Amino acid sequence: MASSQELVEWERVGIELAMEAGKMMVSASGRNTNIDTKASFADLVTETDKAVEAFLFGEIGKKFPSHKTIGEESASDGSAKCVWTDAPTWIIDPIDGTMNFVHTFPFTCVSIGVTVNKKVVLGIVYSPFLDKLYTARIGCGAFCNGRPIKVRPCATFKEALLIAELGGSREEEWKKAVFKNLQSVAWISHSVRSLGSAALNTCYIAEGFADAYYEFGLHCWDMAGCSIILTEAGGVVMDTKGGPIDIMSRRFIASGTGSIAKQLSDTLPVHLELERD
Ligand code: LIP
Prior knowledge:
Blueprint: H1 4-28, E1 36-37, E2 44-45, H2 47-63, E3 68-71, H3 72-76, E4 89-96, H4 98-103, E5 109-116, E6 119-127, E7 132-137, E8 142-144, E9 147-148, E10 161-164, H5 172-186, E11 191-193, H6 198-206, E12 212-216, H7 220-232, E13 236-238, E14 251-255, H8 258-267
Parallel strand pairs: 3-4, 10-11, 10-12
Antiparallel strand pairs: 1-2, 4-5, 5-6, 6-7, 7-8, 8-9, 12-14, 13-14
Helix pairs in contact: 1-2, 6-7
L-MYO-inositol-1-phosphate is lined by residues 72, 93, 96-98, 165, 167-168, 196-198, 215, 218, 222.
């Protein structure tokens, strides 16, 4: 386990790097050059995703040579598989909400989670366009721009504001599953939002703006940083089938309360089994 001084230092460095990454995003915004696709025509990667990841990996390597890194772009292009050990590991999504970034929809962020012994101990999510910096260290609470944040205790599923996403696949089986799940919750809750960034969706629950979020097909870099921000704000993360969260499993429920999370898990009719990270 890391000492509390180490965690404070890692957080200080992580925040500095996230702010620099945010500047890179802002200066590239709207240029939209070199957009590639991954799993489908709706799963995008830009040159800025790659540049931000290379910058973060380079700086982390210089500052903490013994630490490991896992990142969306190097994992996706096959140059570095997700090797997750007990060593301190920085799990990074250089731009979470790349589709939004490409369209200049401001709901996009850089997301950083650090694990030790395969447990998330630090989370930093920075949205430069919304100017929101979410942070959490294990056992120390969650913050937005330095101000403590807390979930909203929503009493009943009927009163819950949910978040769901379409995800990046466009395969038939996927599309059917997404709509079946959406239909199962849409008419028995207050409503459903879809904003396009897993990390920010989860931070919005941590801040009490929404009550629960689920998605299949996420990766560890989508879930790592934001999950500790939510739990430190008093919320819960779990597997869509109701068990403990496994950030390599590609399945994610985030909620302000355990009971809404459980009800969401019990209600979803389709639980996709996807290849692990
Ligand atoms: C995105 C997620 C979003 C999901 C997309 C994609 P990216 O991350 O945050 O919630 O629906 O499929 O995975 O690819 O922009 O980092």
